[in-house]
Amino acid sequence: MLDQYGLVAFLAVIALAFPFVGAGVAWLIRPKRPDPIKNSTYECGMETIGDTWVQFRAQYYLFALIFVVFDIEVMFMFPFAVAFDKVGLFAVIEAILFVLILALGLVYAWKKEALEWQ
């Protein structure tokens, strides 16, 4: 029994050493003579003109976030839909509760006018 823990300890040492070894190898093979051309920002092969810092509107972020939430909902609901005939009543109630919680979040965002494109 104790020899199995030895194997676990050995693998733990390897897992902990792996990032440090990788960082050491990356440090050894990195370019060591930077110049202004290497340190310049690469923007599609063109030199930037003017201020390159652009502020995005919050609506873009909100739409992307809502898309991700409902995309994840579909990902969680797909296995349920595939095995619908094999699950019990408890799983059906859980799936309905899951969809209702997300629908309430959508209604809340709609009422707060977070989905209005201005």
Summary of the model, kept short:
With 118 residues, this protein is mainly α. It has two domains: 2-39; 58-111, NADH:ubiquinone/plastoquinone oxidoreductase, chain 3 (Methane Monooxygenase Hydroxylase, Chain G, domain 1, Up-down Bundle), CATH 1.20.58.
Q: How would you explain this protein's 3D organization?
A:
With 118 residues, the protein is mainly α. The protein folds into two domains: 38 residues; 54 residues, Methane Monooxygenase Hydroxylase, Chain G, domain 1 (Up-down Bundle). 68% of the residues lie in helices and 0% in strands. The longest helix is centred in the N-terminal third of the chain and has 28 residues.
Give the overall shape: flat
Specify the number of helices: 4
Q: Remind me, CATH topology of the largest domain?
A: Methane Monooxygenase Hydroxylase, Chain G, domain 1
How many beta-strand runs? Answer: 0
Topology diagram in text:
Elements: H1 2-29, H2 36-39, H3 58-82, H4 89-111
Helix pairs in contact: 3-4
What key phrases describe this protein's structure?
Methane Monooxygenase Hydroxylase, Chain G, domain 1, 118 residues, single chain, 2 domains, flat
